Amino acid sequence: MDDTLAALRLTGLRKHFGRPAVDGLDLTVRRGEFYALLGPNGAGKTTTLRLVTGLLAPDAGSIEVLGIDLASAPAAAKAKMAYLPDEPMLYGKLKQFEYLEFVAGLWGVRAEEAEPRARELLDWLGLSPHAHELTEGFSRGMKQKLALAGALIHAPELLILDEPLTGLDAAAARQVKDLLLTHVAKGGTVILTTHILEVAERLAQRIGIISAGRLTAEGTLDELRARTQGGSLEDVFLQLTATP
Amino acid sequence: MRLAPGSVSWLLRHELRLAWYNAAGGKDAGGKRGMGRLALGLMLAGWAVLHLAAWVVVDKLAGTPGDDPRILLAITALLAVATTFMLSSAIKSSVLVMFERSDLDLLLSSPLPSHSILAVRLAGVSAGTAALYLGLLAPFAHAGLLQGQWRWLGIYPAVISVAVLCSCCAMLLTLGLVRVLGARRTRVVAQVIGALAGALLVIGSQLQALLPRESQGRVRETIVRAMQQVEAPDNPLWIPARALLGDLGPILSLAVVAVLVFMLTARGTHRFFARGLQLAASVAPAPVARAGVQRHRFGRSLFAAVVVKEWRLIVRDPQLLSQVLLQLLFLLPLFFVIFKRADIQVQAIGAGMAVLCSSLTGALAWIALSAEDAPDLLRVAPASQGLLRRAKLAAAVIPVLALVALPLLWLIGRAPVAGLVACLVVCGAVVGAGLIVFWCGRPGVRSNFKGRGKGGFVMNMLELSNSLSWGALGWFLLAATIAPLSGMAMVAVLAGAVFAIATPGAAWLLRQKLA
Description:
heterodimer; A: 244 residues; alpha/beta; 6-stranded mixed β-sheet; 10 strands; 38% helix; B: 515 residues; mainly alpha; 77% helix
């Protein structure tokens, strides 16, 4: 694939924590793509995302974000992406606008861009009525939505989400899914990990299945079905990750 | 020995195991050992030295009558001081038990009777309260045992009984506060009461010094008269002291009272304890005043955004703020005395401010630098990590300097040279304390502010060295503005300066090893 078309390129990525967590992973995600990374518990999904976001340093291999080498230009690469972990990175004693002000400050977003975007995101996610409350009183879903607003405040080209729908009710999950689809429709790239296979089945254009730190299968849902004996994504997933 | 699951003794063993893991084998947020071998070794060495000192004291006091009013008075005074500190410690432990021990949900959702749970928790609070004082006084009991002076063994039952009584009072006070004030306010108020209880005698002794000279005389006369009335050895006031000296009757009396109060507290308040825990668990977040118009400041520089965020987080956390500010409480008596005198004591002001500011900066720097709520958010941001940390250091240093700016300006107005020297010393102490945390601070969580001392023995020693060296330097330099220094004082200035500079230097050298 042409380098200019890759939102994320991982080459020979390795990370050991006593045992290999990521073991020579090669992965490419195209620009404007909705990519789901699936795998059983302990397969190395979260470690991969933490390597990509610079939270962990790889033992070997390279990471390119939108053509920028993460190791040599980390700030430039980080400026183009956003990360939403499964536990929202919030401050309980801040109100939502104050939180977004701070995140906008971290990414150096100009005031004339940040303020209207913050209002738009909070309105979209239905958080505006809670503008005067400290986030410590928010429900799990509200916290996750605010963290998502924080991730989008600098209009990242690459959005990386680790289990973004965990613990959300149906309405909140729907809002988050709609926001992610909108992001992709506007040309952004989304990479998410999830245990909810139905989410990957419905949203993702391509699916990667990771097991023991390696990419064991990749493709559209139809391509994955063709590699196995078909059935639902759950059947495909179980066949591809079954231990011999 | 197999203990029946669910019994009080079984639960007590579980509690002791947790306490042991926490004290000796626990790991902090950085994944390092809670207590290093070096610290443990130093503690044991200190305890051995204490035994030697106790041996000498016990030997010298052999044959001293236990009912000598002077001895009874001295021990009663000592016990009174220890009791205020025990009460302070017990109140803090009770708050911890009520609000910060997450395993209570598990215990209370089990079929264990709530009076067993309260009894074990109360026993845990009592043991924690007694531990320090037993550590200090037990060597005397051991020395007495080896020298055949059995009465010194009274230290054990006396200290444990007083600790039990203090713990029951503390638990009842905490439960009462929950009932009257609600769970949210109780945390803050109980901490303030706990600190006040600890500082009670210190503040009380200094308040007396604030009175006019003739009133001071009247207070002294009243105290002497009261003491004469209680001089009889059978006065109940002496019971704790006589118990400590090994008098069997008072030992039994004190122990019986302690056991009765313990049982009554555990049996009589267990339902309210459970109710208090429910209230604590259902505490709603603090309401925030609604602003008429929401004003936002997007577009701040990165440095300003971090500073403002840190200040907001500290100011909006009354529990944390009270813990930080309570450190000032113990230094207030010093300032009472200093400012009451017509001839201002610049040495004391300079030294006091240096120690106070160093301690306060260390606390704020730990909160801002080490106890970041969302460290991953900062690490994924395309911002210079160095700039972020410098902004956090500034967020810790600026409030302290702002706080002392007014007294320093006042001092400069009264005594310009001394004021400028005090400014230099205070700035040095503040910057030193901030840099120590900047270079050597280990990650922690804000809710564990009280336990930050466990973050590392060496770092604590560096902080202490910074405070003391700048305090001593301030004292002698300011004394030099009044009168020429003697040769010894010059040496002290030199030593203070060397330590003041060497301490942050050591922190810089140790930065990768400790952080």
